[in-house]
């Protein structure tokens, strides 16, 4: 007689939990800032204090397939558990940019106010309501396109709050002059100039991604699209400032990568493993 083996019942592994938080009324931005908070598996019962990732354009979590990406990485134990605060954009053309100055068309005119919101309202609010670390070494900021420019600008100028920035297809073309007004790469890209004039902070690390199909523009007709050249030129400026090319900077260039959430979602695991490496 053949023994009957017990049925194998699949064990459902815990998943991330996502919750909407609409309680934050910003004074400098004069609007309610909607947040999506993604909590790691076991958050409710652990009592632990977690590292934190702030992310611009938080309204795009679904298109980024963020919960599926995170669940996969947690199952593999590829990342250390962290809390994700996804910040929904408002007037992103004005709120994202460089806090020090708007571009030549006055885009980014509220970027300084957005930085103020992040530092004086968002971070204290999140620390009060969620179990997250106050250690800059455990705090990361990331974004996409203009949101990537914003994230980099905030981290670069506030090493007392953050130590890592993640930039997907960053808008490093952000410039102070139009081509008709005599624009020059060497002097008129705003973020590059801020890096050249800014301080060196030994704790900072940066992750950059570009795709070979991010765009088609090539200002100087050298065969390299502007999205790639603006990013690699910024990396060169960081290296010249003192950041080690291998130890402080990771650059990922995706063949065929486009300026969209599908490309950014595919490379998201690389960024998250870099930012929150598993044990």
In short:
By secondary structure, this protein is of the alpha/beta class.
Shape: globular
Count the beta strands: 8
Lateral arrangement of strands in the main beta sheet: 1-2-4-3-5-6-7-8
Along the chain, the helix and strand elements come as EEHEHEHHEHEHHEHEH
Alpha-carbon Rg, integer: 20 Å
Structural class: alpha/beta
| Beta-strand residue percentage | 15-25%
What low-confidence regions span 5 or more consecutive residues with pLDDT below 50? Answer: none
Overall average pLDDT: 94
What structural keywords apply?
single chain; 279 residues; alpha/beta; 8-stranded mixed beta sheet; 8 strands; globular
What does this protein look like?
With 279 residues, the chain is an alpha/beta fold. 33% of the residues lie in helices and 21% in strands. The chain has 9 helices and 8 strands. Strands 1-2-4-3-5-6-7-8 form an 8-stranded mixed beta sheet, sandwiched between helices. The longest helix has 19 residues, at 111-129. The N and C termini lie far apart (47 Å). The mean pLDDT is 94.
């Amino acid at each position: 007689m053949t023994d009957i083996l017990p049925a194998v019942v699949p064990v459902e592994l815990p998943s991330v939990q996502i919750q909407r938080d609409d309680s934050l009324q910003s004074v400098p931005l004069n609007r309610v800032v909607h947040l999506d908070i993604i909590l790691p598996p076991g958050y409710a019962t652990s009592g632990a204090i977690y590292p934190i990732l702030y992310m611009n354009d938080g309204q795009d979590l679904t298109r980024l397939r963020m919960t599926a990406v995170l669940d996969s990485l947690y199952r593999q134990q590829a990342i250390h558990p962290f809390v994700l605060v996804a910040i929904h954009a408002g007037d992103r053309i004005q709120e994202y940019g460089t806090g020090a100055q708007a571009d030549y068309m006055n885009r980014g005119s509220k970027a300084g106010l957005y930085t103020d919101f992040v530092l004086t309202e968002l971070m204290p609010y999140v620390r009060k309501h969620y179990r997250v670390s106050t250690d800059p070494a455990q705090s990361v900021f990331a974004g996409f396109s203009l949101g990537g420019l914003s994230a980099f600008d905030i981290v670069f100028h506030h090493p007392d709050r953050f130590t890592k920035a993640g930039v997907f297809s960053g808008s490093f073309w952000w410039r102070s002059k139009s081509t008709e007004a005599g624009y020059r790469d060497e002097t008129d890209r705003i973020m590059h100039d801020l890096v050249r004039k800014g301080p060196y902070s030994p704790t900072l690390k940066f992750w950059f991604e570009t795709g070979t199909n991010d765009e088609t523009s090539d200002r100087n007709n050298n065969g390299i699209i502007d999205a790639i050249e603006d990013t690699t030129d910024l990396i060169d400026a960081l290296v010249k400032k003192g950041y080690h090319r291998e130890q402080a900077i990771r650059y990922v260039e995706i063949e065929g990568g486009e300026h969209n959430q599908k490309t950014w979602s595919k490379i998201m695991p690389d960024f998250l493993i870099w930012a929150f490496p598993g044990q």
